[in-house]
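Session log. Operator J.P. requested a structure for one protein chain; no other inputs attached. Running the standard single-chain path with token output.
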Amino acid sequence: MINPNHRHRRAVITALAVSLPFAFLAPAGASTAAPTAPAQQTGAPSQPGPLDLGAADQPETRTVTALAPGLTRTAITRGTPNQDFFWTAEVAVPSTSPDPDAPASALSTQAQAEKVADKLNAAGVVARVEHVQSPRLADAGGDLGYRVRAGHFTAKADGAATVAQIQAAGYKSSVIYTGWDGDEGSSENDHGPWKLEVLTIDPKEFRGDLTSSFGPNLEDRETTSQLAAASGALAATNGGYFVMDPAAGAPGDPAGAAVHDGKVLSEPVGHRPSLVIGAKNNTSIQRLHWHGTVTAPGNTAALALDGLNRVPGLIRNCGGTDDTPTNLPLHDFTCTDANEIVAFTPEFGASTPSGPGLEAVLDARGTVTAVNNIRGTAVPAGGHTLQATGTDVGKLAALAKPGSKLKVDTDLLTGDGKLFKTSATTDVVNGGPTLVQHGKLNVTAKRDGMARTDDSNSFFYGWVHKRNPRTIAGVDAQGRTLIVTADGRQTTSLGLSIKEAADVARSLGMVNAINLDGGGSTTMVQNGRVVNSPSDAAGERPIGDALLLLPGRKE
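Structure written below.
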């Protein structure tokens, strides 16, 4: 329950803000007593120094707003507009694969890129070939290949004629801004600009609640500001990865681990990292996996669950069991499995996914009340349903008999195989890759499925290498949680490559940090107002879940 007195206090505190160069921020551990004058801004969290982002001599300003004792928002602007950046046309280079359906990609071999550039030059397009090298990460990066570009434009619209020429020559093309490149060595010389927002939560002093919310159900999407307003949040950011396309599952459904108020609602993607929120607002970054089973009393045999609260057969971001084409994490890709058993809880939505197969309905005591020969029904309050497809239909039918009792276990396990214990204060939000571990950069892009071997590095180029809007979460050496949004895909804020995201996390003092969902999802809300600049043309994106800072703590 939200205390109305907290709301009154919030209205007073958020009126106080101060804009300071980074060097003037208060030392760590300064008082956060309720402010009555600007001097109380000494309660603002300290950061070790300027951001490790772009050229070292760039101007940086931080505006700190106290939202409640132990909770601040810091708006950071860094750098100045760089006149060296421009708009240019990037060419999709046809694949050299023998597969006639292989898609074109942004990168190719030097020989193929030069062949395309020669053809464009012959058609009157002045094309150039550029070698793309990416900063080395823990398990990926380095030489990515070659790209083909043409033109040097002041405004995006100025590139339309060149794109038309490229298309007339038989190639796909789009106009991009060179400030969004994340090439090796570029960050050290860039002037920006960048705009970031940082929420800092001190668990020793914040008496509210850091939690997550997916809204009325899992399968529908809401904006961060809608989720914040529904809970009366002081502040909020977007959360983990989720399904967007109905062809990939139920839109809004988590595409990775999800726990809310101690209840497991979605299985992890392989052993990908997640943000874990525990008692008294303490957080950690953990790699979780799961072991879901269905058993009957007196029957030692257990049926393995393939998933929880998702459309059977569709595994967004992969990382499951017996899936095609892989059991490993594969980001923004939907693996398939025709033979699955998936459990559902009431949180999924009004009805489970419909389709052929079998569905057993279990009440709150685990009693099978119905076995339906088609999928799609309501989940009883406190109960489950179990859906089976393909060859797993017979397995479930043999175990689930009307009137029998079944036990559904959806336990999460820690990295060392131990049971991940939850309580009413436990929330888990999925993410990846890891950015910082034990105070050192440790960007695990390949391990967490952001590096592919079958697309000429094009996915890595667009998702990891290039600058995009990012949302980052982590913990500093003092145990404070920091949640960061970085605007991107704009000329007024370039965004961050994944390497730059890790650099920013460490320069903000994080000793462990993780990348959360980003791109058009990246959003921060304060007192019901979006305070960053989401990149989608339509505005704030509806998402799967959000991180919320509430004025009252759940006990």
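Operator note: The chain is about 15% helix and 35% strand.
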